[in-house]
Amino acid sequence: MEAALFANGYRAEQAEFICFKWNGKHANDFIDDNLAFRREVIQYIEANQYEGVCGVLLKDLVVAEAQYSKEAWGIYRNYPALAKSLIRSTGTVYLDDFFQAAFMCFDTHCATLSIDFSTVEYETCLQELLARKATAAEGMKEVYEKGLELFSEYKARHSNPLPDPETCVVKPTFIERVKRRMFKK
Q1: Bridge partners of 68?
Q2: Which of 84, 91, 94, 112 could bridge across to 102 with cysteines, CB 3.0–4.6 Å?
Q3: Percent of the chain predicted with pLDDT > 90
Q4: 6-9 long-range CB contacts below 8 Å, 24 or more apart?
């Protein structure tokens, strides 16, 4: 199957070809039968700067890569760009999937923190998360809280840029304070 044809004509019923298909093992015995083709599809999409990709394909790729990351103990180098393209091109449609993937494991969480949301309508996403949280079941309520925190932190970082390094006062660490007290005598 050719990645370009697959990506351009993707339908949700074709998820079986790109989903995380793990053999249940780790380290040298780890196998994801769909990894090679899934990465071909992702590389095709990257080569075309994520233009014209249907939202459901992006969602299925993000979820599959997050599941892969959880079990492989690593993450695809361009996961942040893939996840960002999902939220940028679909808005709040796949917000649940985006955040479930984002908080699936340490690696996906860290990768999501590196996303520059400046081209994403994160204010709209914040409002949608608040609305969904109000009526959410317990499991999703935690996901929405983490999502709200992620977007709020992003907004705070970008509305309050770091101060000029020359004007910063560096406080000594705990160990430095202890050393100073010990050697003061």
Answers
A1: none
A2: 112
A3: 74
A4: 6/37, 6/41, 7/41, 7/44, 7/45, 7/53, 7/57, 8/52
Per-residue model confidence as pLDDT tens digits over 58-82? 999 999 999 999 999 999 999 999 9
Read off the tokens for 82: 């893939």
Structure tokens at 31: 């196998």
Q: Is 41 exposed, middle or buried (0-12, 13-18, 19+ CB in 10 A)?
A: buried
Contact status, residue 143 vs residue 109, Cβ threshold 8 Å: no
Return all residues near 162 (Cβ < 8 A) that are at least 6 apart: none
Measured distance CA(164)–CA(57) in Å, rounded? 43
What's the sign of the alpha-carbon dihedral 141, 81, 52, 88?
positive
Long-range pairs of 33-37 with CB within 8 A, sequence gap ≥ 24: 34/64, 35/68, 37/1, 37/3, 37/6
Token pair listed for 97: 């999937």
pTM: 0.84
